Amino acid sequence: MATQDFTFGNFNPGKNEVELVDVFAIVLVGYFSPMIFGVMSFSIDVFGGYDMTAPIWTVGGADISAALIIVTFSSFWIIGTNLLNSDTDHSQEEMAIFATALLSPILFVMMPPFEALVLWHELVQVMFSVYVIAATVLISYLG
To answer: Mutual orientation of helices 20-36 and 92-110 as an angle, nearest 10°?
Structure first.
């Protein structure tokens, strides 16, 4: 019987292992991407209160929130530590998965038609949240 070794850790683990350097970013994406898509919410009630999805800046009608900045930075961190080294050799389908996961939170905030698509039904919101989380884990795992 064949077994597969799953390793969390090691700064040079090779393929098919989640790198330790990506674990914190994966947790941040898993926590904040459902906030962007409206699946869950989180607010701090002390010191005057703060909602993590409240806009920090409004640029051209797009509300840039702390959750969007955290998810975008964490996704770029995972892509930077896994895809930009010389050892990766991903197919075009995998690169499309990565690009969609990176762009969907940004498109949700910037493009009203994409926002209407995601907000069409609650299951679509959950689907996009799970997709972004699963794709970022896949980036770390395959990289």
So the answer is: 40
DSSP string, the chain: -------B--SS--SSSB-HHHHHHHHHHHHHHHHHTTS---EE-STT-EETTSEEEEETTEEEEHHHHHHHHHHHHHHHHHTSSTT----HHHHHHHHHHHHHHHHHHH-HHHHHHHTT-HHHHHHHHHHHHHHHHHHHHH-
pLDDT tens digits for range 52-97: 777 888 888 888 888 899 999 998 888 888 766 656 667 788 888 8
User: Per-domain residue ranges for the chain?
Assistant: 20-42+58-142
